[in-house]
Amino acid sequence: MSAERLSTGGSAIDRARPLSFSFDGRKVDAFAGDTIAAALLANDVAIVGRSFKYHRPRGVWGSGVEEPNALVDIAGRGPNTRATTEAARQGLVAVSVNASPDAARDRSAFLDRFARFIPAAFYYKTFMWPDWHRFEPRIRAMAGLGKVDPTWTAPEAADQINHHCDVLVVGAGPAGLAAARLAAHEGKSVLLVDEQMVPGGSLRHRDGEIDGKSTAQWITESLSAVTGAGQLFLPATTAFGIYDHNLVALNQRHQDGRPDTLWRVRPRRIILATGALERPLPFADNDLPGIMAADAALVYLRCYAVRVGRRIVIATNNDSAYEVAEALIEAGAAVTLIDMRQDGLPSAPKGVTVLRGRMIASAQGKSSVESVTLDDGTRLTVDSVLVSGGWTPTLHLFCQARSKLAWSEKRAAFLPGDPVEGIAVAGAANGAVSLSEVFTDAVRATQSPSPAPASTGREASGGVVPAWPIAGAKGRIWIDYQSDVTAKDVELAARENFVSVEHLKRYTTLGMATDQGKTSNLLGLALLAGISGRSIAETGTTTYRPPFTPVPLTSFAGPRSGELMAPVRRLPLENTHRAQGAVFQEYGGWLRPAFYGGTDAEAAIQDEARRARQSAALFDGSTLGKIEVIGPQAAAFVDFIYYNTMSTLKPGRCRYGFMLSENGVVFDDGILVRLDEHRFIVSCSTSHVGAVHVRLEEWRQDRFGRDAVYIHNATSEMATLTVSGPASKQLLATLDLGLSLADADLPHMAIGEGRFAGDLLRVARVSFTGDRSYELSIRADRAEILWRSLQEAGKAFDAVTLGLEALMILRAEKGYIVISKDTDGTTMPQDLGVDGPRTKRQTDYVGRRSLFTEVAQAPNRLQLVGLAVPDGEPPLAPGAHGILQDGLKLRSQGFVTSSYLSPVLGRPIALALIERGAARHGETIDMQHLGQKRHATITAPCVFDPSGARFNA
Amino acid sequence: MQIFTCPFCGPRDESEFHFGGEAGNTRPDGAGVPAERWAQYLYMRANPKGATREVWVHLTCGEFFVMERDSVGHKVAASQALGGAEKSE
């Protein structure tokens, strides 16, 4: 190659702002406005990377997102960034992919000499014995592209934006700009996006005149017409996916180091003005550095003032390369144009030699192309080869919207087939070639009555002739540069009967990797069509899936990482608990105090549990569900929802009950409070509040009706502070709560209303500890005063503040269950010893019929029991299995669900679900955990104060 | 992401909704329901390809409703409140 920067010209660069960056450790001079690829070419860097499998030297191919070769790893930006779309920035550090020590001197280049022995699927066929995984790490280390930096962390969360508009125009080339301008003029809300950093598309480097103006003038004018109407243009933004109901996802890149922004756009109408991509030509060694797309060479010349060579051969099968030839001659290069076509050729540009009816058979060169041999044997010395194998409309988004393509023999391309509702394709993406065609098409796509802009440019006289690879051709004809797939690999796949394009893709990796075959797919499937004797239309394309270009995972994650991945719910009194030395843990989605003070967790928990039984304990139970059920049919409603009959509950009283699923499994347990005739409070488990609420709503709406019952989830409105223990009544008596605490007025399982510091206070005598307990509920924002008053009053009684861990011990001593800890997805109420409603209730309730199935009445069901261990032994492991010798095999007969050391009993206690457990109290069974065997004796679940005397002590 | 129409709130993103089951799965009441009928109610689903009638819940307003949609093309035909009183596009 002998590429160089010309002293004048370059519409995209600002020569007043020079900068430099590093590529493979080498300093590269550039100007503001350069892409990395443009700057590398300006510095005559021929080899920009090494190929995936064979470590072949590769150079810049294109000028946009289609780029298969020029991938670089950029520190802080990520692997496999396309050098053709990334802006050159001062101080940027770029490293070539799959090369060591660098692209120019790659150590693994020798692999290419063995290429004939390692065709497609070689690894899978060869390394089958003894085990592929033995070879995999080394093979993977030798192949591949960029490297992920595992130490990298996102400096900040990516923004995600939801956006609605009338019209989304994808692509700000001639068609897109014209469409956006028209839509904006008609008062529609418009979002115009382009993946390039500047608008204009092909107008930036192709000749033309629009409405009597230059292309540059028309771009500026059109863009101001769009933005001047208050509409939005996003440069450097790729529409990478169309999803259900025409949701379009955009990835917006920023030049200031911010993470990319994800846009979710809901347009009423989508106009895809996504242009077309130039295809390579098939000839031997067509992947040598210095061989590039003809259109890209024109981009580098006109936008970046980079002339890619001095002695240039241009090979083409269509008219678009003629303008390239003309421009390069004017820029001082010697140009030979090789046209496959015999007839209908445009007139040859002045100074250009045109060889008609010829094509390149092979290219030669070591580190870059040095000569080409034509099909008639002529050899031409060159330093650069530009090819144009025709144009492939960019229809990825259109296909993602589940539409089909239609093959056009005339255009030698797939064009939009069946239309998709709400989506229009315009311009080159729709097969338009000349500017006037493009504009007519854009106006049609907007459904506007306005006339198209008058224009000249790109008139195509000669059409296009097929330039597909042919089976059995000599040499290595590269189909997919990025995945290192040659025509011979495609032939091999066809020979082994992988004749579906989807199989071809997976067998050879054709069309895989980061470019997803943007330049290669059509050549591959045309070759397969030829080999298998089918037409290209019959052969079809592989499925198009998002994303169109790689999207950083940070864009998809947005702010939802770290603490925000699954945010915990927090107590109103969290800061107060922290000041008291609470150590917090997450329980059922809530952050709650596990225990207070001390570094020795076990000692602190034991101490709290012991002292709670002695005098008084304070506990924050604010997370308990408080769902109000109100209305004329409230009583009938709770009867249906609960397993237990609830309508017989008297106002002012509380009852413990189960809610079942329709399959009879215990879904939740808790206290139901009846405030008055038509008003209940469902106090459900902390972790189940949301699910219980939805369940209540479902049955209310489906079975009872909107006017019969009303449901209100008041869980977060009220804080609940619990005072428990033998001294709890005396402790409360020191405070002015505005209600009588006499047991006659407020007996166990009753609720009373009082006032504290002017606020409504509900006092419920329900107990989860087994001791006399009072649950005080008050509006959440006033809970702190109550908590401080309780703490103050507690000093005289040596009251202890309980964390959740100590509470777990107290409830286990009483045999009280925690749903989905002491129960599982098979546990029915009779397994928990609550069989009354099942056998006695006459009215229907949720889950009832399931309690009478064969399985529900099986004799060997797992039932809740307590387990005692021999004196002096430590607690059983939660999850330890009760085991049984069954013939020659051991089998499980249940498992430990909760296990603690009880300070008040001075021994370990456990709850378990054991087969037929209720009838086996006193029996000693074998336990096993992680291979260790122990014994345990089955007891009743409740091992402390079984008579319940302490409720009133 | 699809757009569903809540009969009460209008068109919203699918992330605001939860699937509630196939519509028309009537609950047989009573302890004497035959086991086959009860199993049908609990477990058997038609899972049609094409036009479906489904119960969905709009989580942000809490209302359950019936939605008619196509399980292949994902086109939403109509939504109606339980009981069929209100109808919307």
From TrEMBL, chain A:
Species of provenance: Taklimakanibacter albus
Source species taxonomy: Bacteria, Pseudomonadati, Pseudomonadota, Alphaproteobacteria, Hyphomicrobiales
The protein's name in its UniProt record: Sarcosine oxidase subunit alpha family protein
From TrEMBL, chain B:
Name listed for the protein in its UniProt record: Sarcosine oxidase subunit delta
Superkingdom of this protein's organism: Bacteria
Species, as recorded: Taklimakanibacter albus
